[in-house]
Structures are given as structure tokens and as C-alpha cells.
TrEMBL record, chain A:
Residues 1-271 form the CheR-type methyltransferase domain. This is Protein-glutamate O-methyltransferase CheR. Coiled coil: none annotated. SMART domains: MeTrc. GO terms for molecular function: S-adenosylmethionine-dependent methyltransferase activity.
From TrEMBL, chain B:
It comes from the Bacteria. The modification 4-aspartylphosphate is found at D52. Residues 3-119 form the Response regulatory domain. This is Response regulator. PROSITE patterns: RESPONSE_REGULATORY (PS50110).
Length: 271, 121
């Protein structure tokens, strides 16, 4: 497919403005692959035409769809197992003690993609029902991608998705067949609230958190956007709250609002 | 280096699995039915068995049951790998002692993920 450099730059600019992410010049070929289904669905015959249609804020729904198609939604259940399991092995016990009075725990999965991360947290919570007897656990997943949020809410996963990181016993306990796919059972879905949200915007109204998971999101952001996002996460995190980043992400040199926990990898506390 | 015994009556599946497992740094052995797999396990137990369900001579399920009473010194981890993806089959496999379960078709990431769940990758 013939596409002009100006068009590619146009999509890269749109993507950067909306998400804070740079589409590196060397990766712009991805644009074509990623947008091809969109062209087909909207019966547009070239990327240049598509660029024309979204230019100057013309068709905002179409622009949203372009941005959505360019996002990398890669995720899996219990991703980065060892770091992630620190939640159930150490952090949940700490918060169960620290919040014994209010019996309220608020967890935010910021950039939750198609929901696997939030459902994994929910399954870990559900594994110790006695600990949380009578508690109000508020588990919120947000993502910029409307497509990802719709899938997360449905809780429907392909055979490939359901077999990434999810132990077979958990699959049997928490999911049921849905044609070729597997769907989170209603009692798992009821444990998580998903909503669309752009992390470049102020945090969702009224949201406060004891634990924030923001994993494999920062790494895509330009440095100034990262700083901005750390500040915004800090603004909703409880004083004794924790932030979990993805493997290979850090606050070091990015923000002085957080410091690494001295005993747990990938865990950060408010400075 | 860990050893994985691939048990499947399909030569194509064995070849695909072998290729993926070798990229995951496994030493790979093959058997084309449960009987042959059992013989191999008694001779030298692998670390993990990737096990088809439907095979001539001896099925995966029969192999799994026989493995339990075979007196192999070190029981390998058993990961079913089958087109049977109904809950009844999966439940039966777990009840019979399977450690993990792969629903075919699989790709590299599926195998890697399931092997890591049984502590092998
Ligand atoms: C690679 S996925 C990681 C998902 C999950 N947290 C994990 O670690 O498996 C990154 C997610 O961040 C989302 N994302 C990227 N930029 C965003 C933004 N500005 N606001 C909200 N979500 C964003 C993407 O849509 C994508 O779903
Ligand atoms: Mg077969």
C-alpha cells in the first residue's frame, strides 16, 4: 500500500497527542498493519484518505478508532509472576492489618488493557475469603482503549489469551466456556469495575487508591509525560499506599515523588 | 538442561512441539503412544511430559493412571496437550493428577507459559 511520509507523520502526531507515546520512526511501518482492519471496516481505500478524514478534528470517532488501533494492548494473567505475587504474599497481609478499622481496600489498575491484570488481582483476593470477610474491596481497571475496556467488561478471552499465565485450576474455578472462548464467571466479573480513562487526564473523579498497579504503560511514554503521570498517581495514592510498576520500569531518574521499597522488587512508596 | 518427553501420535505435532521446546532450551524426547511413554519414563524419567489425550495403544489418560502406579522414582510434571477442551475432560485430567493443561492449537507462548506454571521454564 502506498502511503506518504506526511500521512505517517500525521498518524504519529495524533497518536502522540492523545496517548503521550512516541511512535518511533523506525516502527511506523506498524501503522499500516495496525490500521488495515480499520480501513476495511470503514470502507476507506487508503491511509492517505483516512488521514484526510481525521485531519483537523474532522471525525473524532474515527480518530479515536485510529488511536485505539495503534495502542499496544499486550498483557497476560499474573504477568511478571514473582513481582506480581508479592501482592498476595506480602502486601495484602500488610493492608489487611493497616486497614483493619475501615475494612476498605482500594486498588487501581491504571492501563489495565483487556482486564487480565485486574482479574488476576481479583482471583488473588478471592483466594483468602476469610481475610476479607466483611471488607469492601474496590478494584478499578481503567484504560484509554475503548476496545480493551469493552473486552475487559465482557471478560471474554480467546483460547490463546486464556492460556497466558493462568493456571488451569484457576481457569476452571473462575471461567466458563463461551463458544470457542472462555468467559469470566459473573462472580469474578462483579469484583472489578472497568472504565475508559486517559492517564494524561486528571485521575478519574473521586478515585483514591491504597494500591496502584501501573505496569508496562510508563515505558511507552515520553519522559515529560512520565513525570506528569507519576505526579497524578501520587495525588490519589494513600500516604502509606504502594505503586507497582512493570518489570524493567522504575521511578529512578523519572520522579522524586516515589522511592523504591527497600524489600520488594517493583514496589514504590510515596517519598 | 531439562528434558521434556513429547507424547503424541501425530508426527507433525511432535515435530512442532520439539522445535518450540528446543528454542526454550529443552532436551526433547518423543514417544508416539502412552505405552512407549511409560517405557521411557521407567528407564529414565524426564522432567516433564507433554501428553496428548487420544492415541492408539494407550491413551494419555491411561498413561497418567499407569504412571501413578509404575513406581518411577521421580514423577515428572505432566502437562496435557490436547484438542479436548471441554470442562469434563479438563476436570478429569486434573483429578487424575495432571499438573497443567494445554488446549490445542498451541503456540510458543502457550507452551512457555504452561511450562513456567509447572516450574519448568
Ligand atoms: C502493554 S499494555 C499493559 C497492560 C497491563 N498493565 C500489563 O502490564 O499487562 C499497556 C496499556 O496501556 C494503555 N495506555 C497507553 N497509553 C495510555 C494512556 N495515555 N492512558 C491510559 N491507558 C493507556 C494501552 O491501551 C494498553 O492497554
Ligand atoms: Mg492424538
Amino acid at each position: 500500500m502506498d502511503v506518504s511520509p506526511a500521512t505517517l507523520r500525521h498518524f504519529a502526531d495524533l497518536f502522540h497527542a492523545r496517548t503521550g507515546q512516541e511512535l518511533a520512526a523506525g516502527r511506523r511501518w506498524r501503522i499500516e498493519t495496525a490500521l488495515r482492519p480499520l480501513l476495511r471496516n470503514h470502507r476507506i481505500d487508503s491511509l492517505d484518505r483516512l488521514a484526510g478524514a481525521v485531519a483537523g478534528g474532522g471525525d473524532t470517532a474515527l480518530a479515536d478508532a485510529v488511536v485505539d488501533a495503534l495502542l499496544n494492548n499486550e498483557t497476560s494473567f499474573f504477568r511478571d509472576g514473582a513481582t506480581f505475587r508479592q501482592l498476595e504474599e506480602r502486601l495484602f497481609a500488610t493492608f489487611a492489618a493497616a486497614r483493619a478499622q475501615s475494612r476498605r481496600l482500594r486498588i487501581w489498575c491504571a492501563g489495565c488493557s483487556t482486564g487480565q491484570e485486574a482479574y488476576s488481582v481479583a482471583m488473588m483476593i478471592a483466594a483468602t475469603p476469610d481475610r476479607w470477610e466483611g471488607w469492601r474491596i474496590e478494584l478499578t481497571g481503567t484504560d484509554l482503549s475503548g476496545r480493551a475496556i469493552a473486552q475487559a467488561r465482557d471478560g471474554v478471552y480467546s483460547p490463546f489469551e486464556i492460556q497466558r499465565g493462568l493456571p488451569i485450576r484457576d481457569m476452571m474455578r473462575w471461567f466458563e466456556p463461551d463458544g470457542e472462548n472462555w468467559r469470566a464467571k459473573a462472580d469474578l466479573r462483579a469484583r472489578v469495575t472497568f472504565s475508559p480513562h486517559n492517564l494524561l487526564d486528571p485521575p478519574p473523579a473521586g478515585l483514591r487508591a491504597d494500591i496502584i498497579l501501573c505496569r508496562n504503560v510508563m515505558l511507552y511514554l515520553a519522559p515529560d509525560r512520565r513525570r506528569h503521570l507519576f505526579a497524578s498517581l501520587a495525588s490519589v495514592l494513600a500516604d502509606d499506599g504502594v505503586l507497582m510498576l512493570g518489570a524493567g520500569e522504575t521511578v529512578l531518574g523519572q520522579s522524586d515523588l516515589f522511592v523504591p521499597d527497600t524489600t520488594m522488587r517493583g514496589i514504590y512508596r510515596r517519598a | 538442561m531439562k528434558t521434556c518427553l513429547v507424547v503424541d501420535d501425530s508426527k507433525v505435532i511432535r515435530k512442532v512441539a520439539r522445535h518450540i521446546l528446543e528454542t526454550l532450551h529443552f532436551n526433547v524426547e518423543e514417544a508416539c503412544d502412552g505405552r512407549e511413554a511409560l517405557t521411557r519414563c521407567t528407564a529414565a524419567a524426564p522432567d516433564v511430559v507433554l501428553l496428548d489425550w487420544n492415541m492408539p495403544v494407550m491413551s494419555g489418560m491411561e498413561f497418567l493412571r499407569a504412571l501413578g502406579t509404575s513406581g518411577v522414582s521421580r514423577r515428572p510434571k505432566v502437562v496435557f496437550c490436547t484438542t479436548e477442551s471441554g470442562v469434563a475432560h479438563i476436570r478429569a485430567a486434573i483429578d487424575a493428577g495432571a499438573d497443567e493443561y494445554v488446549m490445542k492449537p498451541f503456540d510458543r507462548e502457550t507452551l512457555q507459559s504452561k511450562l513456567s506454571l509447572v516450574g519448568m521454564a
